[in-house]
Amino acid sequence: MGAEIRDPHNITIGTKTTIGHNCTLDGRGGLQIGNNVNFSSEVMIWTMQHDPQCSNFGIESSPVVIEDYAWISCRSVILPGVTVGKGSIVAAGAVVTKSVEPHTIVGGVPAKPIGKRNENLEYTLGNQGAIWFV
Predict the structure, then answer these.
(1) Residue 29: other Cβ atoms inside 10 A
(2) Across the beta sheet with 24-26, what order do the strands follow?
(3) Residue 97 near residue 80, CB atoms below 8 Å
(4) Other CB atoms within 10 A of residue 90 CB
């Protein structure tokens, strides 16, 4: 449904994960996605970027890990080297520059903790009419 997948051979996706409309998944630096992860529409995950301090605009890369039961809400951006912990939520429009602890809700630019999530997550995605299932 319009998702852009860069270097899919470097991307691992667990079971029952859903990918929303027009998401960008960048596998160039390595991307690991767990089980029952929900990506809302227009999420961007980047594993490679330009080094702003490099005199020749060089590139740096670092893997991204999205753990089980994470919910990455619409139009959020996750940058290289970030781990989004189990059960965490990234609020709509957030830009995640640092790793997120498990069961933490983050939001804003740059993303900061704004709440905690229930730790007893037992749902299975895939029965709510999502776009793509793995």
Answers:
(1) 20
(2) 4-6, 24-26, 44-45, 77-78, 95-96
(3) no
(4) 28
User: Annotated catalytic, 21?
Assistant: no
Strands 104-107 and 112-116: antiparallel
What letter represents residue 131's amino acid? Answer: I
Give tens-digit pLDDT for 29-87.
999 999 999 999 999 999 999 988 899 999 999 999 999 999 999 999 999 999 999 99
Quote the pLDDT of residue 125.
87
Peptide bond between residue 80 and the one before it cis (omega within 30 degrees of 0): no
Catalytic residue of the set 9, 21, 50, 103 = 50
Give me 2's structure tokens.
């319009």
Q: Residue 118 is encoded by which pair of tokens?
A: 């229930």
123 within domain boundaries: no
Return the sign of the alpha-carbon dihedral for residues 71, 44, 17, 132. positive
What is d(CA 131, CA 107) in angstroms, rounded to the nearest whole number? 24
In this structure, what CATH number is given to the domain that contains residue 61? 2.160.10.10
DSSP 9: G
- What tokens appear for 43 in the block? 């999420």
Residue 56 falls inside a structural domain: yes
